[in-house]
């Protein structure tokens, strides 16, 4: 989708807030710290700086790849984990998306591999680049470090209030891809693993999204739906809605008004590292808005 100068500025502003927030959030990830305190710190900092969380902070550990966020009274603490923070900020629905790995597990090479993959991928980008070339750069970087890319996760386009818009940006060389044009805005997000290189759905997470606004009769569910509508089509956390929403949530899920995102885990329980930046394609390269 073609953006205007005004909407591009909103992406840039979201990206700037996100860079600052990421720098502070990584310092909070320590052994013994609760995941919930890191999630709340990060989401509150986004709001203090004038943005809104584009999705709940994803805090995925070890073999978890994505769609994990703490519950309302989550007591889990960090141990010797490989921790991924995936954070999004939006300004009026214009989203910047970034991820970083904080390694408490003693596997820094796996983190270096994914960071190199992101750098190499960004270096291939220019107006007219095919997404399969980006995937090839990611695959080559990760395999040259002795690991595997996670091939059934991809980067993605971004549109107003849509976090995962086409095109997808593969994490391996593909037979066919899409051409990126000047002004396109995409998130590139390689994942590397010492496991099998694929993820599977490992049950329901704490993250949901609205799929249709059907009428709902039950008063508590109707009231909750009004709350949820303010997130529009963006993902939201169950914990954002308070402590006592189990019945109303279930009612909305059963009516297929909201849907949960499944937690994604590595098939061989391998460790996963992740890195992500949001970029604007330019004629001869790109502008990284989450630098
Ligand atoms: Co993303």
Count of strand segments: 16
Ligand inventory: cobalt (II) ion
End-to-end gap:
23 Å
Residue share in helices?
25-40%
Q: Label the structural class.
A: alpha+beta
Strand portion, in percent? Answer: 25-35%
**Runs with pLDDT <50, length 5+?**
none
Strand order of the largest sheet: 8-7-9-15-16
Multimeric state of these chains? single chain
- Radius of gyration (Å): 18 Å
Q: What is the highest CATH level, the class of the largest domain?
A: Alpha Beta
Polypeptide structure, described:
The relative contact order is 0.19. The chain folds into two domains: 5-202 and 267-288, Creatine Amidinohydrolase, CATH 3.90.230; 207-261, Arc Repressor Mutant, subunit A (Orthogonal Bundle). The two termini are 23 Å apart. Strand 15 (277-281) and strand 16 (286-288) form a beta hairpin. The longest helix has 22 residues, at 5-26. It has a five-stranded antiparallel sheet with strand order 8-7-9-15-16. It is an alpha+beta fold and 291 residues long. Helix 3 packs antiparallel against helix 4 (131-144). The model has no long low-confidence stretch (mean pLDDT 97). The chain is built from six helices and 16 strands. The structure holds cobalt (II) ion.
